[in-house]
């Protein structure tokens, strides 16, 4: 982080300098630490410039470590910078959990700002960009925050290469190529990377075996945008090309998933699990994950609104039990450890141990619906075995699952009952997080979530198991459903039905997610185009004030939401619920019978 630390490590000039939008925390849940440790382990020296002052006219903090021998790598942060900066209602957030004391320090379009600053200071040094911001913007994309379709980020940022997905393998390969003398403009074949070529070169010598997406700005048209998304969705395992006015962006096929052995090795590197000692204030994002374990990568859930699949991939790679036990044992030796492992999971906790024969090919099936596939093998027994071993470690008092589970992955019958009872008795403190998101059939279908009947059956079963005998001192537990308002296809009537369902089954929660159209998701393509790209069916899109009304209806107990909720009830001709679901305020006009 500092010249003094480089000198202490015997480094005069680092091979690679990572420029991070997050404060530096040496923990495997933070991308900069994960990449930095992986590169160092591969034989490269690494410096880190965390949260440089981009408002300084002289850009001194960008020059803190001098110039790298090979390249700069910009890592904008663990969370998309614009999601981190704004609420779904486009209100500026007041805190940044990835900064000391929660202060706001990063620019909104972190990658573009940082790469321009670096290029201005060191025009001859290659810049590689990556992380979730660049990964989701590798093609022309709808940008919710400017309400426009923007170019692929390589057309805006002066970078040499873009690494998409989980970038360790690709970044190490880039470093090895440059170490052996390859220039960055000749590195065009590494999977999981994007590069640019001139318009003239593309016309004379287009890349072989490439699928050409509709060009920018033609793709700004809503119908064309939907077509381009459908092509990208179906052909994403191939080389994709998208022409832009001044450059052509080429995306190579995805990098292969890491193996179990590689994932074990990566997460067992000597992370201190602490923030850098130079910080005088705590970094809020560290506290809830400091003593957590990442069990796997990838998510095959395929939720339409989620970006994880497009970043980590659909193929799940699970770590070995022995590796996780070794990591847990090292955690327990830390003086700060108080006996609780805060979370054991990943994007979805009970995807650990799941396997499929077709994943061995490195390419998911075309229909991309793993849960209903006969070749799929559930990992429930492996997860239970791991949790039991962790629970029995010396110095471990509690092992919790905080990252949520897929209720539709829980097996039927005795094994499923045993799993839920084990969770109840040992691995959840008071609440189990699940994500039905909605109960409307048309909305869950567009979300690619299980139908409401699946959630209802699970809820009834969960409650019945609560009545069985519990260990001494163990209280009953409750479901915490994650719910979403304003998803494409969702109308005010659907939100009223959801509110009534939650009231009927006593599932009210203040945790409500208002749909945010992040780049590259299927839901965002629906939101912008008003079309389902894969079926070509028109989709209703709630916008503006209706988004606020839909959210208010899910928070009907909050007095601050009464006025908006009443507006929604009147629009849906459900004034019968005023004074019932929502307290009455004054007199309201009676609805005319039709």
Question: How would you sum up this structure, described in words?
Answer:
This protein is of the alpha/beta class. It has 19 helices and 24 strands. The strands form 8 sheets. The protein has a 9-stranded mixed sheet, sandwiched between helices. A 3-stranded parallel sheet has the order 22-23-24. Strands 2-13 form a two-stranded antiparallel sheet. Strand 6 (141-143) and strand 7 form a beta hairpin. Helix 11 packs parallel to helix 12 (380-391). The radius of gyration is 25 Å and the shape is globular. It starts with a helix and ends in a 23-residue tail after the last helix. 43% of the residues are buried. The mean pLDDT is 93.
Give the count of helical stretches: 19
| Low-pLDDT segments | none
What best-fitting shape do the alpha-carbon axes yield? globular
β-strand number:
24
**Sheet with the most strands: spatial strand order:** 3-1-4-5-8-9-12-11-10
Mean of all residue-level pLDDT scores: 93
Radius of gyration: 25 Å
- Tell me the β content: 5-15%
For the biggest sheet, the summary is: 9 strands, mixed
- Percent in helix: 25-40%
State the end-to-end distance: 71 Å
Structural class: alpha/beta
């Amino acid at each position: 982080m500092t010249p003094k630390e480089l000198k202490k490590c015997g480094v005069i000039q680092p091979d690679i300098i990572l420029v991070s939008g997050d404060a530096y925390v040496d923990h495997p849940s933070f991308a900069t630490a994960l990449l930095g440790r992986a590169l160092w382990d591969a034989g490269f020296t690494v410096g880190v410039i965390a949260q440089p002052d981009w408002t300084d006219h002289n850009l001194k903090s960008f020059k803190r470590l001098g110039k790298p021998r090979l390249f700069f790598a910009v890592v904008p942060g663990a969370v998309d910078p614009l999601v981190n900066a704004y609420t779904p209602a486009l209100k500026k957030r007041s805190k940044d959990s990835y900064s000391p004391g929660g202060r706001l320090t990063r620019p909104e379009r972190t990658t573009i700002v940082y790469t321009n600053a670096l290029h201005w200071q060191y025009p001859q040094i290659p810049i590689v960009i990556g992380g979730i911001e660049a990964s989701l913007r590798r093609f022309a994309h709808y940008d919710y925050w400017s309400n426009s379709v923007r170019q692929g980020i390589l057309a805006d940022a002066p970078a040499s290469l873009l690494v998409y997905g989980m970038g360790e393998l690709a970044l190490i390969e880039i470093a090895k190529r440059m170490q052996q003398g390859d220039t960055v403009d000749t590195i065009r074949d590494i999977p999981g990377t994007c590069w640019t070529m001139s318009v003239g070169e593309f016309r004379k010598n287009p890349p072989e075996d490439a699928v050409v997406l509709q060009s920018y700005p033609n793709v700004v048209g809503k119908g064309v945008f939907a077509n381009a998304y459908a092509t990208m969705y179906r052909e994403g395992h191939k080389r994709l090309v998208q022409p832009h006015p001044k450059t052509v962006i080429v995306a190579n096929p995805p990098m292969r998933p890491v193996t179990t052995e590689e994932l074990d090795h990566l997460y067992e590197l000597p992370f201190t699990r602490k923030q850098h000692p130079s910080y005088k204030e705590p970094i809020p994002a560290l506290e809830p994950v400091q003593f957590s374990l990442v069990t796997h990568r990838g998510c095959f859930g395929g939720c339409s609104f989620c970006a994880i699949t497009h970043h980590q991939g659909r193929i799940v790679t699970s770590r070995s039990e022995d590796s996780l036990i070794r990591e847990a044992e090292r955690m327990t030796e830390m003086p700060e450890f108080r006996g609780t492992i805060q979370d054991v999971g990943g994007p979805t906790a009970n995807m650990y141990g799941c396997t499929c024969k077709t994943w061995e090919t490195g390419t998911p099936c075309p229909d991309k619906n793993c849960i209903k596939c006969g070749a799929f093998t559930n990992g429930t027994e492996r997860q239970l075995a791991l949790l039991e071993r962790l629970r029995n470690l010396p110095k471990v008092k509690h092992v919790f699952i905080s990252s949520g589970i897929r209720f539709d992955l829980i097996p039927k019958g005795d094994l499923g009952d045993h799993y839920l009872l084990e969770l109840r008795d040992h691995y959840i403190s008071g609440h189990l997080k699940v994500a039905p998101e909605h109960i409307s059939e048309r909305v869950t279908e567009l979300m690619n979530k299980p139908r409401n009947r699946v959630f209802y059956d699970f809820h009834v079963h969960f409650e019945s198991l609560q009545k069985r005998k519990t260990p001494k001192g163990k209280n009953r537990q409750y479901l915490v459903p994650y719910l979403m308002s304003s998803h494409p296809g969702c109308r005010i009537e659907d939100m009223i039905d959801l509110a009534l369902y939650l009231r009927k089954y006593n599932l009210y929660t203040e945790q409500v997610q208002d749909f945010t159209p992040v780049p590259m998701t299927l839901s965002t393509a629906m939101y912008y185009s008003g079309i389902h790209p894969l079926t070509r069916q028109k989709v209703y899109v709630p916008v503006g004030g209706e988004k606020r009304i839909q959210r208010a209806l899910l928070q009907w107990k909050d007095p601050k939401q009464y006025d908006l909720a009443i507006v929604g009830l009147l629009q849906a001709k459900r004034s019968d619920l005023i004074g019932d679901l929502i307290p009455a305020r004054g007199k309201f006009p009676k609805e005319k019978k039709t």
